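Q: For a teaching session next week I want to show students how multiple molecules come together into a single three-dimensional assembly. I've collected the sequence lines for a complex. Could you give me the predicted structure tokens for the whole thing so I can convert them for display?
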Amino acid sequence: MRKVAVPAVIPLLLLGACGGGGSSDLGTTSPTSPTSPTQVIAGAAPNVVTLEVDAGPAALPGPALNTAFVTITVCQPGSTTNCETIPDIAVDTGSSGLRLVYGALSPSFAATLPQQVAGTLAVAECTSFAIGYSWGSVRNADVTISGETASDIPIHMIGDPAFPNVPTTCSSNVPTEEDTVATFGANGILGVGQFVPDCGDACAQDPVPGTYYTCATNGATCTAVIEPTNLQVSNPVAAFTADNNGVIVELPPVSDSGALSATGALVFGIGTESNNGLNGATVLTSDPSSGYISASFANVSYSDGYLDSGSNAFYFVDSSLPVCSQSSIAPGFFCPNSTQSLSVQLIGTNGASVTTGFDVGNAVELATDNASATAFPDFGVPNSDPQGFDAGLTFFYGRNVFTAIAGASTPSGTGPYFAY
Amino acid sequence: MPFPTACLIRPPLAALLALALTAAAPAFATLGGGVASVEADRVKLQGRVQVTTVAGVTVHEITTAAGTRVREYLTPDGAVFGFTWHGPFIPDLRQLLGTYYQQYAHGVQEAHPVGRRHLSVQLPSLVVQSNGRMRAFSGRAWDPALLPQNFSLTNLN
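A: Of course. Below is the structure for the complete assembly, covering every listed component.
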């Protein structure tokens, strides 16, 4: 497996990076942002960690595409010496909580992270992604990312061999297990989305099958249980002592033809330091339950809109564009005959909106012409949610995207919101 | 807008008849099952039901205890031809798919989803589209052979 060489230093300043188009108007407007802010990618600082779009862990069956990774350090709570540094953790603004693949740690270290218990029973968790599930223990750890530390927080240890029996209510909805580095696609996932606890009040009120369970000793069956929000696996950023109201994903522009890698920054805090101000970005507040914003695309409104670093393409509804064949190297992606210059208006629940141009190219041609690339800004995929517009990592290239945490205050209002 | 799929491929008549028989059978099954199966779903999902009409078809809407809205669409004969979900959790698809579950589970293994958020399983007699991220999932499933004439998939939402 090729490992892409990357520059060690984050560029201090990248100018003139902000997306194509940006001014065409699709529908009703309220307060709009006529021009995108000029992008400045943060340099090294305690609240900044290098963000790499690259091929990811060597254990993957193929290189990761449009996936942004960071390196984190995990320690036994209270210890500064019993720690492991783990690279290739995918950054996900569409989920909350740190999930580590057990196989990415040394077993002796993993065993020192205290297991969460409820009475005499061990607590385990199931995480549902739309394409599969991850299952494993809930343990506590100190999580350090650059100069920020979340102390003694619950994390999800997926694929923990102490919990071999996956409950049926965990595995049956989407019966694809993703508990190894190869199947999960990363050494872990850093959920820095709009919410603090991953499940929230629902899991604190009644047992929700497919979320939290208690299990008797090794090998025994597990039972869905109530999990108080303060014990749920939670966004580590919210547990930092400062810079804890959200994040900024800052990735440089990438050529339409793709790039071997892209290096940017994950910045903690919004308006808390000199390097994380909104800098003219438009705040699009989102639904406090779902985190959705809305979108207007090709004169159709979509209610399930979101910006998501954990999606590796633009996912939208467009029945006019051809899709690459299942036997091609990019099955299921859009395969237009020529690159399409498109435009979407993203609209917050506050009525603010921004219209942004984006390009969708022929994924087979792009992947063939630049076979070693891992960053492809023009990848698009049909969205099978008829109400969905998912602006994935492709949208993030060349602009700083803010994700503010629900209930957290920032100089531009209270989260949840996206801004760019 | 419907996803461009093989959903218009109709199974042979024999398969249709088999499904019709399934539909008439007493219900635990849901997709393909009768009205009684909606009640079984409601009990299993610990929800409450509301009955409405969408584009001329009867829709039983169940809101689960955990807050996900499930809508089951019935043919004029009273068989569930499709269902949708929208909310913080994916509902119990084994329950809702009923006798279709095994082909779904097999189809998932054959599917090649792009990314983490979107899954599409397309079989001759079953389409399942599952989307979303933590706290915000949506999806739908239907049997193309059971779709009422002139019913547009845009109404299956």
